Amino acid sequence: MKPHKVDQGKTEDGYVSFDSDSDEENGNRRSERKLKGKGEGKARDEGHSWYHYRRWRFCKVLLMDRCFDWKIVKIGNLEFLQVRNLHNQVTFTPSNFGSALDWAGAVNAAQLTNEAMDYTVSNDHGSFAPMRTDSQILVGIDGAAYMAAVADAMEAARYEILIADWFLSPEIYLKRPYINDYWRLDKLLKRKAVIRHPSHFRDRTFNWSHHEKLVVVDQSVVFMGGIDLCFGRWDRPDHP
Fold first, then answer.
1. Is the CB of residue 166 less than 8 Å from the CB of residue 213?
2. Domain limits of the chain?
3. What is the DSSP track for 58-123?
4. Which residues contact 231 (CB under 8 A, 6 or more apart)?
5. Bridge partners of residue 164, in order along the sequence
6. What is the structure's pLDDT at 200?
7. Tens of pLDDT along 121-153?
8. Cβ of 118: how many Cβ atoms within 10 Å?
């Protein structure tokens, strides 16, 4: 499936791409040619929906929420699959024009699973997710222990790291005392992949603030609360 041209720019057969700068797209295609044939078995084992000759770059995620819905729309003599949620609406062009109904059936089947219905039905207190039980929770108070735990989790990340802060200082040392730059935040992230949102120059977004403090590693370890990864937040119980 490919997003229809009313929603996005150029795409290649067989893989989904959304609005992005042409230079970035060209760079991705060059990277894909270099990586072609590498990691085929790994991609198969990971169970994702990308082709095993491609190194996938997530461009846009359309989550199933309480307003998630889909329908078949007809433009001229062609049929397209239109999917929407609370935040977005995307019209997909099937690579095989006769397969729109097949894709609609697959989306409908996914929507009816227990995992999806946790988010597509109304939950208590207007929450986007149901109440969970038996969660493993550790309460952190001081920035020193918090940042050290974040550093260890980031270092162990295998797939993805999500950081949302009100104020982030790339030069901060997450572990102290330090003898080199190994545990400096920007050096740690350089060992991983970084996508910044918003892209201030591309999106022309200059007045931007995100109050929530959040770090999610591999969608399994979450740090949340009131501590930014920035100067002035690292502290110990003895407050040196």
1. yes
2. 2-20+59-120, 143-225
3. --------TT-EEEEEEETTEEEEEEE-SS-EEEEE-SSGGGHHHHHHHHHHHHTSHHHHHHHS--
4. 169, 172
5. 214
6. 64
7. 888 988 888 888 888 888 888 999 999 999 999
8. 14
